[in-house]
Amino acid sequence: MAIADDTLSFVRSSLQNEEKFMVSVCYILLFWAVCLVFILLSVSAPYGRYSRPGYGFQVPAKLAWFVQELPSFLVPVYLLLFTDCPRAGELKNLVAVGLFLLHYFHRTFIFPFLIKGGKPTPLVPFVMAFIFCLLNGYLQGGYLLRYADLEKNVSTVQFFAGACQGQGQGQTLKFPALAQPSHLCMGVFFVGMATNIYSDHILRSLRKEGEKGYKIPYGGMFEYVSGANFFGEAVEWSGFAIMCGTLPAAAFALFTVCNIGPRAYQHHRWYLEKFEDYPKNRKAIIPFIL
């Protein structure tokens, strides 16, 4: 009996420590996200059209995208199938994990193999992307499957209060029942994902097989912003964060925006410098605003 009690106590202690670890990592991500904005506004991330020497050997584009995105899909699947997940029986949690996996199924098993003439990715940004996807897959999957109580309905004020206190169970962001995030924000997620996928399709359509170089994209959200694919991804993960109402999801959404926002701005500036006939009414990432 004593052994059983000790074992149960150890398991509870381990789970509490894991949750605290996840919360701590989220705060680091939030801090790094803010720093990232200032860094990437002054120095472009060295991949894609901004790829340059000095960051290790070049990894082929298709291979790089497949390998670096793979952990975000495999880690939640592994946690769900082979570890103890107390929240795995709750529908909203499974739906949230399913949406996360849906995005990364596309990113891992579909998107890389549609790339036409993509530039190789230097080793350094490739490794950094792999580590981030590994960590984020663990954060999103682990928190949703083990700790997140998505049935709770608390206000935005309570979310920030919980976040400031550093208590994982208090970090749940949801709107009042009148506006169910599980329905409305799921729609936002799918709109963002569809925008992202369609924008990527437009960019691919600009090149014929084996063709290199860049052209002005038209159609879809490209009529309004230069970074239409980035806009879609920002909308997608913002909807996901509000729907989940967890600190890991919010940290991921903010990190994504802070990472791709400056890149959209750099794309916009690059287009204006390279093409004299580039539409002057387009913004960088937020239609009509920025």
From TrEMBL:
Coarse class of the protein's main subcellular location: endoplasmic reticulum
EC number of this enzyme: 1.3.1.22
Domain of life: Eukaryota
Chain ranges passing through the membrane: 21-43, 63-82, 94-115, 121-139
Compartments (UniProt record): Endoplasmic reticulum membrane; Microsome membrane
Membrane topology classification: Multi-pass membrane protein
Pfam families referenced in this protein's UniProt entry, alphabetically: Steroid_dh (PF02544)
Function: Converts testosterone into 5-alpha-dihydrotestosterone and progesterone or corticosterone into their corresponding 5-alpha-3-oxosteroids. It plays a central role in sexual differentiation and androgen physiology.
Protein name (record): 3-oxo-5alpha-steroid 4-dehydrogenase (NADP(+))
